[in-house]
Amino acid sequence: MLIDLFPPTVLHALDIAGIFVFAISGALLAVRKNFDVFGIMVLAGATATGGGLIRDLIIGAVPPAAFTDLGYLVTPVVAAVLVMFLHPEVERINRAVGVFDAAGLGLFCVVGTTKAFEYGLGLPFAAVLGVVTAAGGGVVRDVLANEVPSLLRWDREIYAVPAIVGASMCALLIQADALNPVTSALSAATAFVLRLCAIRYGWRAPRAWHRRSATAEEP
Amino acid sequence: MLIDLFPPTVLHALDIAGIFVFAISGALLAVRKNFDVFGIMVLAGATATGGGLIRDLIIGAVPPAAFTDLGYLVTPVVAAVLVMFLHPEVERINRAVGVFDAAGLGLFCVVGTTKAFEYGLGLPFAAVLGVVTAAGGGVVRDVLANEVPSLLRWDREIYAVPAIVGASMCALLIQADALNPVTSALSAATAFVLRLCAIRYGWRAPRAWHRRSATAEEP
Amino acid sequence: MLIDLFPPTVLHALDIAGIFVFAISGALLAVRKNFDVFGIMVLAGATATGGGLIRDLIIGAVPPAAFTDLGYLVTPVVAAVLVMFLHPEVERINRAVGVFDAAGLGLFCVVGTTKAFEYGLGLPFAAVLGVVTAAGGGVVRDVLANEVPSLLRWDREIYAVPAIVGASMCALLIQADALNPVTSALSAATAFVLRLCAIRYGWRAPRAWHRRSATAEEP
């Protein structure tokens, strides 16, 4: 569906760009964790392809896209090598990385929702898999690096909400039979802008009430 | 098979009840870890559906049950919202939560074993997947929350043993062609009672011998 | 393919030997982490079968080999029981365990590459899955035990490189239509010897440059 909405080359280029920025975020964490060159590559690759891989296993699209397109293999390696040599520079343009990551988030939540729907899943589940596509790689990254997933933490700017909004918009548009290049781009753009605002204004989601109960561990 | 043994509505109601209590345990850990509202929902959902999801991927039942039945999506969200607002109250009835969790353990080890057998797995492997169905969600929960899985720890009451006993009973009954509503309920009840006893009397499984060797890290 | 190159019984015996030594490494970590007997078995089984399981899910070989052959179920249990009672002795022959583990690494990277190619994956991806087969179990082990995967860490002897070399040799031989019992054994042996040298001479892979940047956490 989405595949028909845009020229394949445009979509593929966007896809690879998303893979690239997600790989950068994995590689940067790997450098901070003092991993070696192969650890950097593994974490870059797992971050970049993890979300789509989980989606493809769940919808039964095997072998997953990550194992059929050489771009998914080469791009994380390039990102890893780049970060390995230039990580102080990459950290310095951290804001730019955040912008591209937000773009990847927007793109992937729409692509993931559409692909899951094409494979026959109900729209609520397609939207969930859109969120998994966009945010799953970051969770895989943090689990592999033995960190608490930043997606789940209260003290991080919201990441799930933009993905949920973008994926839900896309699902509602499919429901209304109104998904076209403009509206799907609009869904992705909404998620993108929401994430940018979250970073810019430090938006956080609420925690549980009554945090002073005996069971709460203050950070 | 089990699907034919009981009226579908009864089985479905039990299933959703199991999902609910597993989701509660995920949400409680998320609150303790100081996650935000979406972190609480994600951990509730992953705990509730993780075991069945792994089973379905392994037996090739795609899309997995968790992605075809809206109850699996809505129930963890309800559990997460409930815990978010009422977690001190939920903690206070922790014993009741433990009882329901034990019921979920009993139910899921039988359901999981039966489903895996229906998909053509050998009985020993079906029993293993019954244990995965019952105990896998808790492992997913602990891995996502960056904790040592409580399933594996020595200083926790046994959780694996009741699941292994229930799943093995169920597999032996299938082998003897004697699985019917009564005997399958009996398998689930055995796992349930064993787990309750484990909590009540603090049963633990043995550790490795010679724990004073140089390689042992005392807790 | 490889399945035709060697007598099935020889290949199966090698396979089970590889499963056994990987299970030993999982069980040893479980003892160090103070897990109970079922925790030891779970970690032994997950380490032994994790890499092949991930490969089989990705190539769509369901149910995975680990759930069709009783040897994959019994061998980790035997390894776990052995380590449970004899872990000081097993630790003392740690060097021998390292040699067998290197043999498993060599065998599994070739078997994994070949199986993935048989299931229709492109050669670069088949090689990646060969590495996943050889090294994935160790990553699963470390994630379950809540440790930073030793595969990724800089302060460990290289493990990925021997697997990458072995899997790539195997893929190139398939490309050149020159895979036969001798050349596939040679690929496995190359990975094996490289890993032994890495242990013997403490070979490590490089880390990121400029480790003194503000973002680097010294270990």
TrEMBL record, chains A, B, C:
Domain Glycine transporter stretches: 13-87, 99-173
Keyword field: Cell membrane, Membrane, Transmembrane, Transmembrane helix
Predominant cellular place of this UniProt entry's protein: membrane
TM annotation in the entry: 12-31, 38-58, 70-87, 99-117, 123-144, 156-176, 182-203
InterPro entries: Gly_transporter (IPR005115)
Record localization: Cell membrane
Lipid bilayer topology: Multi-pass membrane protein
Superkingdom to which the source organism belongs: Bacteria
Stored Pfam families: Gly_transporter (PF03458)
Listed PANTHER family: INNER MEMBRANE PROTEIN, UPF0126 INNER MEMBRANE PROTEIN YADS-RELATED
Similarity annotation: Belongs to the UPF0126 family.
Annotated protein name in UniProt: Trimeric intracellular cation channel family protein
